[in-house]
Amino acid sequence: MKKLVPLAEDFLKREWTDSEGQREKGAKFNEQLQFVIKIYITQSEDPLSTIETIATKGIPELLEADKNGYSASFPTLTRSSYPVYYRVLFTELLDAVKTIPPVRQTDLVDSWMDRLLCWNVSVRILHILVNLIKTFDSRGCLGTCIKVGF
Question: Which residues cross the membrane (predicted)?
Answer without folding.
Answer: none
